[in-house]
């Protein structure tokens, strides 16, 4: 796995919007925070464009992203937001420059599409907060501090309380995954996730419970849950139900799909569409401990 260089003050960061349309009010304070910390921040030419629900046309979003990929002086690409649209521009991008000039890609939610592409290419990336989540009440959030710790040192450790559905144990392995709906959308494509022997991270937002079950059954039937080293489950927030209740919570649906836990499983980790969205390096090796208290810690050699 290739790890880009960690950031130092003065390094260049590019902001791109590969998916949903972006609000200046939500984005600019986060950009100013990075600038105040001494980083050079370049915003993509089309970041504030609007094309229906997207931040510009497919071509415009891809152009900004490709420019960031190709810039040898850029050390990190931070996505402005998720939403929907990343999958539409994969085929328009040439990622080969990243292997010659590696740089960190940061984001979550819809950005899971790019995390999966980079994982296949053998390049680590960061599942973490985007600029709209850098500040709360004009103060840097824990999510932002966590991201900067990873970007500047590579240190990544999450400690959290146990959950009643957890399956105790310990394991180590490469961390992969992200937003479950986006992982599901890549099934049967060249970017389908390889989960064998790995720690799988999943999280999601505003999905119907029956559709969550459909996705989990897909991963089960495809064999992608058979040989996991471990499973870490982040926030499944604002989940929706039909008029006729599904009868299970999101976590219960996931628990049922893994059939008795033949590997360590930890629910409710601080990752995903939640206020405390701590950064993780996808592609890096982690140690997972699931006991009365739990931890997920990067193994650095």
From TrEMBL:
| Entry keywords, A to Z | Carboxypeptidase, Hydrolase, Protease, Serine protease
| Residues annotated as domain LD-carboxypeptidase N-terminal | 13-128
Tell me the ranges covered by the LD-carboxypeptidase C-terminal domain, including all copies.
172-288
What the entry lists under SUPFAM superfamilies is as follows: Class I glutamine amidotransferase-like (SSF52317), LD-carboxypeptidase A C-terminal domain-like (SSF141986)
State the family it belongs to.
Belongs to the peptidase S66 family.
Origin superkingdom: Bacteria
One Gene Ontology term of the molecular function aspect: carboxypeptidase activity
Q: Which InterPro entries match?
A: Carboxypeptidase_A_C_sf (IPR027461), Class_I_gatase-like (IPR029062), LdcA_N (IPR027478), Peptidase_S66_N (IPR040449), Peptidase_S66C (IPR040921), S66_fam (IPR003507)
Q: What is the lineage of its organism?
A: Bacteria, Pseudomonadati, Bacteroidota, Bacteroidia, Marinilabiliales
The GO biological-process annotations, alphabetized, read as: proteolysis
Q: Which CDD domains match?
A: Peptidase_S66 (cd07025)
- The name this protein goes by in its record: Muramoyltetrapeptide carboxypeptidase
> Which residues are annotated as active site?
109, 203, 273
């Amino acid at each position: 796995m290739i790890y880009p260089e960690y950031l130092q003050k003065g390094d260049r960061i590019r902001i791109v919007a590969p998916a949903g349309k972006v609000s200046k009010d939500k984005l600019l304070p986060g950009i100013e925070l990075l600038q105040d910390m001494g980083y050079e921040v370049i915003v993509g030419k089309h970041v504030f464009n609007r094309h229906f629900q997207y931040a510009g046309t497919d071509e415009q979003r891809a152009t900004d992203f490709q420019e960031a990929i190709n810039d040898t002086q850029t050390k990190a690409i931070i996505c402005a937001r998720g939403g929907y649209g990343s999958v539409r521009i994969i085929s328009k991008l040439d990622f080969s420059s990243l292997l010659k000039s590696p740089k960190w890609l940061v984001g979550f939610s819809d950005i899971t599409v790019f995390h999966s592409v980079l994982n296949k290419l053998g390049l680590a990336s960061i599942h973490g907060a985007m600029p709209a989540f850098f500040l709360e009440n004009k103060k840097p959030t824990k999510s932002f501090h966590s991201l900067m710790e990873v970007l500047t040192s590579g240190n990544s450790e999450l400690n959290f309380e146990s959950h009643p559905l957890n399956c105790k144990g310990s394991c180590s392995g490469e961390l992969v995954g992200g937003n479950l709906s986006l992982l599901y959308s890549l099934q049967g494509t060249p970017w389908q996730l390889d989960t064998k022997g790995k720690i799988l991270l999943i999280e999601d937002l505003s999905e119907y419970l029956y559709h969550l079950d459909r996705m989990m059954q897909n991963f089960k039937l495809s064999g992608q849950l058979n040989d996991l080293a471990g499973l870490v489950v982040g926030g499944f927030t604002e989940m929706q139900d039909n008029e006729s209740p599904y009868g299970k919570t999101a976590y219960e649906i996931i628990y049922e799909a893994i059939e008795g836990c033949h590997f360590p499983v930890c629910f409710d980790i601080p990752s995903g569409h939640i206020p405390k969205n701590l950064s993780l390096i996808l592609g890096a090796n982690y140690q997972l401990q699931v006991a009365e208290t739990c931890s997920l810690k990067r193994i650095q050699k």
